[in-house]
Specification:
303 residues; DNA polymerase, domain 1
Amino acid sequence: MVNEVVRVLVTSPAGIYVDGTVGSGGHSEAIAGRLSETGRLICVDRDQDAIRISKQRLGYLGKRVAFSKANFAELDMVMRDLGIGKINGILLDLGMSSYQVDHSGRGFSFNRDEPLDMRMDLDDKTNAGHLLNTLSAAEIEKILRDYGEEKKARAISRLIERERRKGPIVNSLQLADLVRSIMPPYGGPGIKDPATRTFQALRIAVNRELENLKIFLGKVPNLIEKGGRLVFLTYHSLEDRLVKRAIAEWEKGCTCPPDFPKCICGKRPLFNRVYRKVIRPNKKEIEHNPRARSAVLRAAERI
């Protein structure tokens, strides 16, 4: 949904905009195309490969673009280091980049025979293989249930515990085949692979994705200029629920009881949502990019 993202995000061509998950730079390049010569783009990603790739793609922008290897939860520190007070808009695309899935070799895909790593930031110490081979079955079950909403979390975690007694679980196909072995056969268009939720849960746990999103949501109202926009692309219910609740809370004003003669809480709305309903990719985009089928766009404007 590149066109929709850019259209809703860029309200001031001379402003400062942040792509908090730059990936391979597709959204950033489109944002830059809407900026004037005095506009500025800040590209942030925790994945060192994403920074390298986006630098190669966007280097022609010269001093109009800056790159920072950082977690979007650290955006306030990135801005401080760049000498930026407030910005005019932030995009947070919370999906996996095609590079990470297809070319990183870190075990994000359940259809590739790769080491079970799943770290977005290779400077992090804990990877997916470490979790699978050291946590108890109960701890693995909790990860699968909490982060994957996997109904067969207990059966999968017990199978993992039994399997690793024979030897460590070290690659992505090994794990995917284990999960598939206790699931009904699947097939047909739009039907998810049985391993999808397990891989999602492990990736979220390894990268502390929900924790980082919560930190970001707590900081972001103080980072955006009035009239600036905040745009999210979410891909599963856990992260979308956090974003939806945050926007709803930001829209609330006074919380005093209705019988109070005047407000004493001092609470004022921080954002207004841009769309009353979420925006989803159309059929044509899904046909072109099947991974976009679960994308949800939400946007809010600072007031």
